[in-house]
Write a structure and sequence with these properties.
Layout: E1 4-8, H1 13-24, E2 28-33, E3 44-47, H2 53-67, E4 74-77, H3 83-93, E5 99-103, H4 129-142, E6 150-156, E7 159-160, H5 178-183, E8 188-191, E9 197-198, E10 201-202, H6 203-211, E11 222-226, E12 232-233, H7 234-245, E13 251-254, H8 256-262, H9 278-282, H10 292-303
Helix pairs in contact: 1-6, 3-4, 7-10
Length: about 300
Amino acid sequence: MANDLLVIGGSGFVSGTVARRAVAAGFRVWVVTRGQRPLPDGVTAIVADRKDTPSFEGAISAAMQMAKIDHFDLVADCIGYDAVDAVQDVAVFRERAHQLLFVSTDFVFDPTHRRFPQGELSDHYLSDGYGGKKRLCELHLLGTDTGDMSWSVVRPCHIYGPGSELGCLPEHGRDKALLEKLRAGEKLHLVGGGHFLQQPILARDLADLMLGFLGRSDLHRRIFQAAGPDVVESVDYYRIIGDVLGVPVGIEEIPVDAYLADNPASAPFLCHRIYDLSGLHAAELPTPATPLTVGLAEQISALDV
């Protein structure tokens, strides 16, 4: 019998990749969408706005009744951001899902107190901004009785691959014009010259990791770092792109202190982002393995279509 997966946010970059990989693996897949963007082939749409909890819950209940199921095997919340989203996940799915997987972020850590490599636990987390809000979601799960529904959390670092724009560091993060600039011979302006270490994860590898949580109720209340196999300086990420294009990559350094003074919210980007993945290995989860050179070549090919 096929496993039943619900993806919240199934038309986005990560969520869409999860949905496609799940369909290919034989899952029955439902996605919650506001109906504004195309969905992956083979999924069943549940049109609802999660900000309206009564209609959100009603739409999910109706979809389950139509499918004649009383539980989803796994719910993957790929877009939860505010603490109220985690509250909603527990309230709506506590009696409707065997497992919940929440996608958090590596930005939960205070960048001034990171360890290298950073493990899952820290005494120093952000309390505001994107990372702070994701941490509040984690804290709600940690402090709430979820009944028979088990939950786990993944914290991806920079996610790349087909379906997204290229770029991992200011001022060229998710830069829609990056390929054009490189082909035109423009210099890239990178904070700190791009010397901060990163460990990017291919979206497909992240999706396969997430699907690997299915049936793993033994991972209840566990939080895992999610990163790729390669640790590189951020500048090397851009040089790999240049190598694929066959063009040199010129770099102009932006001083870190000056940039931070004008852009304090960018602090989580401006640190080494490398991770201890021993937790994934010990849990025998599908560990991301696609080399950065291979994944970036795929992404460039997709953007050049």
